[in-house]
Amino acid sequence: MAKQVVLMVGTKKGLYTLRSDADRKKWTQDGPYSAPAPIHHATYDPRDGSMYAAINMTWGGSRIDYSRDMGKTWQKSKNPAFPEGSDRTFSQTWHIEPGHVKTPNVVWAGTEPAALWKSEDRGETWQLNKALDDQPSRAKWVPGFGGMGLHSIAIDADDPKKMQVGISVGGVYTSTDGGSSWVQDNAQTGGKEDRPDVFYCIHKLLAHPKTSGVRFMRVHVDVFWREPGETTWRNRTEGLPTTFGFAAAMHPRDRATAYAIPLHDTERTAVDPGIAVYSTNDRGATWQRNDKGLPPGARLESVREGMDTDLLDPLGVYFGTANGDVWASRDEGRSWERAAQYLPYVTSVHAATIE
Amino acid sequence: MTLDASTLREALEALVKAHPSLAERMRDEHGRLRAHLSLFVNEEDARFLGGEDATLADGDIVHVIPALSGG
């Protein structure tokens, strides 16, 4: 069967899907599902073909939905639930991460209030990760501008027991035992100051899907890289036009290539000469601006889950914007075509490569 | 639907028993009614009738109305 790409596009008013063949020239659009609910994130699980969506309703409460038939029908998970006696209440889901191929029924979720949840039944029920919840340093977590969420779950390519989570504002925690215990993991090299405590506002933390130990991290201020065996975060911001941004992606085959969309640190939009995707092919040592096809001068914005890649060759790179556009590159991020426009505010883009 | 209940709380419990998927839509994990849910008994706001302890008589009509809020 020919390969397809399905873009799961979360917006402030429902989930849309864009579908194309491997050429990725023409896109057909379906949706919205569950409008007017804001969808912070939606993802596809290549292990079994499930889809998951973070449905963040104000009325009726937030929930996580899953689909076993490529989005034709959806079912509701049993909500994440803080234990009796907790002073916290599940508010919304920031991220859903399919587990490692070696743990076939495991799916992870990060929520607000910041907490990590594990499902061992393909997303039907969720259990609180108590080891992270019991961290004494949790008392120091504070909300960022978007709330206090756990939004990044980075699982190592080789070993599912090695993982990180990223929290706004709570920094990075690392586990080497599948989440049974955690240590703070915020030491950096090459930055302006050493900030080893929880006060990093992580914006996105990614694990390379093929190469064990490689990480790319987009923080409120600065971007960082980690190579296998390293225990600090190497500052790799030099060469980017600003230190701020949200959207980040890694090349699924080339372990030295990643993508970022820099934004103005207070205005939260692209700076002159307009929005662009910056790419590195040397682990962040240098950055190249890629804006061919993008509207010159456009002060667009792409948020935390706003960018992803497919698995095709040449690589497809995708990002969504606050003004309802989805942009697609069929040449590894060098040039861009609009795949959709006039959608609601795009909050997430996930590219599923379907065999 | 017609329910057998002597208080508003009992009516909500009977409603959830008949439609279990409403449980998480009406209450959070600690059993608190969700903030965007309004309850009325015979078109009177239940907050002024004792909340979930409001008593019901034969023929009383309860409305459960989720407030559609947001942008």
Word description of this protein:
The complex is a heterodimer of chains A (355) and B (71). Chain A has 355 residues and is an all-beta fold. In chain A, the strands form seven sheets. A five-stranded mixed β-sheet of chain A has the order 16-20-19-18-17, with no helix packed on it. The longest helix of chain A has 4 residues, at 130-133. Chain A starts with a strand and ends with a strand. Chain A has one helix at residues 130-133; strands at residues 4-11, 14-21, 28-33, 39-45, 50-55, 63-67, 75-76, 92-98, 107-112, 115-119, 127-128, 149-155, 163-168, 171-175, 183-184, 188-189, 202-207, 215-219, 223-226, 233-235, 244-250, 258-263, 277-280, 288-290, 307-309, 317-320, 326-329, 337-340, 346-354. Chain B is an alpha+beta fold and 71 residues long. In chain B, 21% of the residues lie in helices and 17% in strands. Chain B has a three-stranded antiparallel β-sheet with strand order 2-1-3, with no helix packed on it. In chain B, a hairpin with a 2-residue loop joins strand 1 (37-41) and strand 2. The N and C termini of chain B lie far apart (31 Å). The chains are: A mainly beta (355), B alpha+beta (71).
